[in-house]
C-alpha cells in the first residue's frame, strides 16, 4: 500500500443533541479499497459526507494529502475527490455525454470551453463504465443501473485520485450491483484509484473491499481486512443478529448467512415436537420446512460440517452432533435416544447408511418399540443406500416390522402431522 | 458541449435568431396606424447608426418628416423596449427555472413582481407626478418596490450563510401574497385612478419613450452578462446543489449572483412595462424543447426568442383593434398559450 492519502482525525458530528459520529479517526493509504459498513443510523453516510466536505464536522478534521480540506476551495477538492451519491435524479434531458462532460467542470476556467483532451477523457470514462453506446441518449430515459454507471463516468471525468461512493447500488438488482462493483474494483486495481464506499450488503463488502471499517453508533468498532472483521462475534456485537460465517466457495472471503431463527414466524405446529434423523443433506429441506411451519424440531445424530448439520446450525435447533467422519459413539447414541424420547414424532429421512451411522436405525427401533410414532421416508429404496453389506437393510426391516408409517414424499409428512393436529 | 439536439450547432442557432430579431424589429416599426415601408425604416435606422449606417443607406430615399418622427420618437423606442423587456423576462425565467430545478418557475416566483406592482400602484394611486432623471414616478416606484421585495425575500430565506432554494421559494410566495394583497387594497381604495392601475397591472408598452429604454438598458445588460457568465454553472446546478458543490462550484456564492441578476432583470421589466406574464415562463420552455437544456444555448436563444416574441405581440397589441390598444400582458398569454400547448402535444415525451 502507498503512503497516507487521506487522514481522518477525531471527527465528531451531531444533529442537535443527537451524536452521529463520535471521535472517528483512521487513515487511508493510496490505492486502498475501503468499505464502510454498519447498521442503519451508525453514521456511514455522514462519515462519507464529512470526508467530501459536504458536511462540516463539529470536531476534528480531514486531511487530504496532509492538507486540511477546509483550507481548500471546492474546485481544488473536486479535482482530487469525486463522489457518487446514493441516488441520482436527472430531470432535464441532457445527453449522457453532456452529463459526463460536466465532470470536467473543476478542470475548466470560467471562460474556458471543453477541448479535445476533455472529450477524450469523457470518451474513456464512458468506455470504462460500459456507457459508450449511451453517449447520445437523454439521461431522462436511462434505467437505474445505466444512470448509476453514467454518474460513475461523470465522477471519473473529474480525474479524481479518490472516489467516494455512497451505497452505489442501493436500488439495483443483483446483476447491476455486481456490474457496478466490478467497475469500481477494476478502477481500483488498474488505476490505483483510492476508493471509499459505503455498503449495505456485508457479503458484497467482504467480497470486494481490501479493508473494512465497521461503525457502531458513530464509533469505529473494528477496522481491518474482511477476514478479520467479518466474524460472527463482531456482527453479533454490532448488528445484534446471529450469523453463520462461511468462506465463499470461489473467492474464499467470509460470507454471512443470517440465522433465521429469530425471524421465523412460528405459526401452526401447536408445539408438536418432531425429531429428524438425517445426514448427508437428505434432511436439510425437511428440517427447514418443519421449523418454518412452527414445529419444534430436533435432529441427530449429525456429523459436524455435514450439510444437514449446517442447516441445523442455521436453524438453531437442538441436535446431537458427532465429529466428522467418525462412527457414532455410545454417548452420541444415548443423547440421541434422549432427544427422541422427548419428541412426539420421529422422522427418518432417506439417508444413506454406513458402519458409522447404523446406530441411528437402532435408536428408531427403540422409539417404535416404545410406541412412538415413527415416519419413514423411503423415496429411495434402502437397497440403494445401504453401504454396510446388508446390515443396514436388516436393521431397517426390523424397524418396519415394529410398525411405522411409510411415506414416499416429504409433503405427506405435513399432511400426517396436520391431520393429527386437527384431531387433537 | 454538443447541443442536445443533433444537427444544430450553437452559433447557427444564435445567428438565425439574431437575423429573425432584426427583421422583426424592422417590420414592426413599419406597422401601425401609419404604415411605413421597410425601405424607409431601414434608411432612418441607418442614419441613426454612426458608421455602418452609410452601408445600409447607399442612395437617398425621400422620407416624410412625419414618418421620421413616428419612427424615431414613437415606434423605435417602444420596439427596443419590447426587445429589452422580452429578453429580460425570458432570461430571468430561464435562470429561475435552472436555480430551482423546476420548469414551473418564472420571473415572478419570488415575489419581486409583487413588490414592483405595489410600488407602481402606489405611485398611480397617489397620483405622484415627478421626474427623476427623466423617469416618471411609476417606473421609479415600481423599481424600488421590486428591489425592496428582493431584499426582504432574500433575508427572510437566509439561514446563516446559506440561502436554501426551498426557503427562498416559501419566503417568495409568502411575501408575494402579502404584497399582492396590499396591491389589491390600494387598488380598492383608489377609485379615481382605478382604470389606470388596472391597465398598468395588465402590462403594456404603450407610450413608452426613450427614457424608459435608457432606464432599463444598463441594468438589463449587466444582469444578462452576469447570468451568461454562469451559464455552465447553471447546467451543473441542474444536477442538484450538492453534486454541483462536489463538482467544484461555489454553490452559495453562484446562487447569490444568479438570484440577484435574475431578480434585477425582473425588476427592470416590471418597472418599465408592468406585469407581462407568460414570456418568462414559456419562452425558456419552448427554447428548451427546441434546442435542449444546455444554458449556453438556452440563455442567448431565450433572450432572442423572448425579444422576438414580445416585439410581435406588442405590434399585434397596437394594430389589432385600432385606435384601441390591447394590454400586451393579455395578448402574450392569448397568443402564446395555444402555441405552447401545440408544442407540448407534438412532443409529449417530455414536458421540459
CATH top level of chain B is: Mainly Alpha
Kindly provide the name of the CATH class of the largest domain in chain A: Alpha Beta
CATH level-two architecture of chain B: Orthogonal Bundle
For the record, the CATH architecture of the largest domain in chain A stands as 3-Layer(aba) Sandwich
Largest sheet of chain B: none
Considering the protein shown, what is the CATH homologous superfamily of chain B? ABC transporter involved in vitamin B12 uptake, BtuC
Specify the biggest β-sheet of chain A: 6 strands, mixed
Radius of gyration of chain B: 21 Å
Whole-number mean pLDDT of chain A = 89
β-strand percent of chain B reads under 5%
Any idea what the shape of chain A is? elongated
Helix content of chain B: over 70%
Poorly predicted regions of chain B are 1-7
Low-confidence stretches of chain A: none
CA-CA gap between termini of chain B: 19 Å
According to DSSP, the number of beta strands of chain B is: 0
User: Which protein chains are joined by the largest interface, and how many residues does each one contribute?
Assistant: A-B, 36 and 27 residues
Would you mind describing this structure in some detail?
The complex is a heterodimer of chains A (424) and B (352). By secondary structure, chain A is α/β, with parallel strands linked by helices. Chain A folds into 2 domains: 4-239, P-loop containing nucleotide triphosphate hydrolases (Rossmann fold, 3-Layer(aba) Sandwich), CATH 3.40.50; 266-423, NAD(P)-binding Rossmann-like Domain (Rossmann fold). Chain A is 36% helix and 24% strand. Chain A contains 15 helices and 18 strands. Chain A has helices spanning 44-51, 74-80, 96-101, 116-128, 144-157, 174-191, 202-208, 226-229, 232-239, 284-292, 307-315, 330-342, 359-369, 391-401, 410-423, and strands at 4-15, 18-29, 33-37, 59-64, 67-68, 81-84, 162-166, 194-198, 211-216, 219-224, 243-247, 254-258, 273-277, 296-303, 319-322, 345-348, 373-377, 405-407. In chain A, strand 11 and strand 12 form a beta hairpin. In chain A, helix 4 packs across helix 5 (144-157) and helix 10 packs parallel to helix 11 (307-315). The longest helix of chain A has 18 residues, at 174-191. Chain A starts with a strand and ends with a helix. The mean pLDDT of chain A is 89. Chain B has a single domain (10-346), classed as ABC transporter involved in vitamin B12 uptake, BtuC (Orthogonal Bundle). Chain B contains 15 helices and no strands. Residues 1-7 of chain B have low confidence and may be disordered. Chains A and B meet through helix 2, strand 6 and helix 3 of A and helix 10 and helix 11 of B.
